[in-house]
Design brief:
By secondary structure, the chain is of the alpha+beta class. It has one domain: Roll (Mlu1-box Binding Protein, DNA-binding Domain). It is built from seven helices and four strands. Strands 1-2-4-3 form a four-stranded antiparallel sheet. It starts with a helix and ends in a 12-residue tail after the last helix.
């Protein structure tokens, strides 16, 4: 069983400056209920320090709900703020979830995190080259360089496709 990398990459969000995946998204990938995933983590809490996993604040969760249309409490939705797992936390999950699927999902997630790191590194290289070019050319090209920089900026809020 292999998990397409695209299926994983779209679930990686940036929260508090960290690339993370929501507990509910991980549970779906692993084929377990979110409750069971979080219970396994709670039984092994010492394996998940704050830099591996943390709980979202009410403000972060509210912003997430409004962005992704997550249901409100009392309507079958979440009653607590979700936990999010950084790359190290996802790797640690393989030690608490004992299944072949968990191993395969972890491999796909690790590859997705590595790919995002590579993309970020190449993005920095492009920024550096642009800075060097900007220093070579006069102010007439400033508008062009500013436009290129604007296009290179990541979206302020991660977007997910909702609906059909």
């Amino acid at each position: 069983m292999t998990v397409p990398m695209e299926r994983v990459e779209h679930r990686i969000l940036t929260i508090r400056g960290h690339r993370v995946i929501l507990d509910a998204d991980l549970a779906e990938l692993y084929g377990v209920k979110t409750f069971h995933l979080n219970e396994a983590v709670k039984r092994n809490r010492s394996r998940f320090p704050e830099d591996f996993m943390f709980q979202m604040t009410a403000e972060e969760f509210t912003a997430l709900k409004s962005q992704f249309a997550i249901s409100k409490p009392g309507r079958g939705g979440r009653r607590i703020n979700p936990y999010v797992f950084a790359e190290e936390g996802v790797a640690m999950l393989s030690s608490v979830l004992h299944s072949e699927r968990a191993v395969q999902v972890n491999i796909a997630i690790m590859r997705a995190f590595v790919r995002l790191r590579e993309l970020a590194a190449s993005h920095k290289d492009v920024h550096q080259r642009l800075d060097e070019m900007e220093q070579k050319y006069d102010a007439h090209f400033k508008v062009v360089f500013d436009a290129i920089r604007a296009l290179m900026e990541p979206p302020k809020i991660p977007c997910r496709r909702i609906g059909y």
